[in-house]
Write a structure and sequence with these properties.
The structure is a single chain. By secondary structure, the chain is an alpha/beta fold. Helices cover about 35% and strands about 15% of the residues. Strands 6-5-4-3-2-1-7-8-9 form a 9-stranded mixed β-sheet, with helices on both faces. Helix 2 links the parallel strand 1 and strand 2. Helix 3 runs parallel beside helix 4 and helix 4 packs parallel to helix 6. The chain is globular and about 45 Å long.
């Protein structure tokens, strides 16, 4: 199964997940570090006061709880950039040892050096996706607010990952995603996509959405909610993120949204330092929010502004 099929399976909201009390999600993203080597102004990362790493004992505990509950796919990333975490390969190896069939990772690419990528693939990583959303180094420097040199470094790391994968005969899928901008921005983006296309197994477009950043700076109107990928867009309500995928912050909070880390208290569904994973997944707060989504009326909730974007 390719990455787009897996994405579509999560964003579709299977009938058994259209309720308020749910079975374990098929997929969970867990943030082993909240730090990032970019400083994109549009990202919730820029609002964080604490960019530390997840407690290793908590990681080990919650991994086992999730797998025992039936979670099948584990993303060892969330808001932060996981390649900045030294124990990323160990996190992947432990997830595979616990029994997760599919461990995946998305990266901005700048810290995904060949050496680090090889260590992760050797640890059992099943999928590595590079997120490419800038047209050139000048735009990159303006939005990511870091050295323009990192732009080309990320592209070269993507290409090197294919060499590492093939040379080591690792069974890790390589993918890329990009925002489908329109106009001149879109044409420039397509040139970047053409450059990386030979080095990945599959690539796909994402629509302009609330966290795309560049869409806001250019004055474009983002799609409401989290519509998924461009070729299989979902309605903003009910939002799949509230029903089919878990999101765990580096300090052990369970958040309702894949765009926010729970800095807004309305997005925090449970503290997994105090309750079990399934206890948090079906917490009263989560049940109430899901009920609002099923009614297609999220007014008064933390989802209201996003759904109406």
């Amino acid at each position: 199964m390719g990455i787009t099929e897996r994405i579509d399976a999560i964003t579709r909201i299977d009938p058994r997940y259209r309720g308020t009390v749910l079975p374990a999600p098929r997929s969970v993203k867990i943030e082993i570090t909240a730090s990032c080597n970019y400083r994109c102004a549009f990202c919730v990362q820029s609002l964080r006061a604490d960019n530390g790493e997840m407690d290793r004992a908590f990681y080990s505990r919650i991994l086992r709880e999730m797998r025992d509950a039936g979670v099948e796919e584990l993303g060892v990333f969330y808001i932060g950039e996981s390649f900045t975490c030294k124990w990323l390969p160990e996190a992947i190896a432990e997830a595979k040892a616990v029994g997760f069939p599919y461990v995946f990772l998305t990266t901005n690419g700048a810290s995904a050096t060949p050496e680090r990528v090889k260590a992760c693939m050797a640890a059992g990583l099943d999928s590595l996706k590079f997120s490419l959303n800038f047209t050139d180094d000048a735009q990159f420097a303006e939005i990511a607010q870091v050295s323009p040199k990192l732009y080309r470094r990320a592209l070269e790391n993507l290409k090197a990952a294919r060499v590492v994968r093939d040379a080591g005969k690792f069974k890790c899928g390589l993918y890329a995603s990009s925002i489908a901008f329109d106009g001149e921005q879109g044409e420039k983006m397509r040139r970047i996509v053409d450059e990386v296309r030979p080095h990945v197994d599959q690539r796909y477009w994402l629509p302009l959405y609330g966290m795309s950043g560049a869409s806001k700076s250019a004055g474009w109107k983002p799609q409401p909610g989290n519509p998924g990928r461009l070729d299989a867009m979902r309605d903003p309500l009910p939002c799949w993120a509230v029903f089919t995928e878990g999101h765990i912050t580096r300090d052990g909070k369970l958040a309702a949204c894949c765009f926010g880390d729970g800095l807004d208290g309305g997005l925090l569904m449970a503290d997994l330092n105090k309750v079990s994973f399934m206890g948090g997944w079906n917490s009263p707060a989560f049940q109430e929010l899901r009920a609002a989504h099923l009614r297609k009326d999220v007014s008064g909730t933390a989802c209201a502004e996003c759904a109406a974007a």
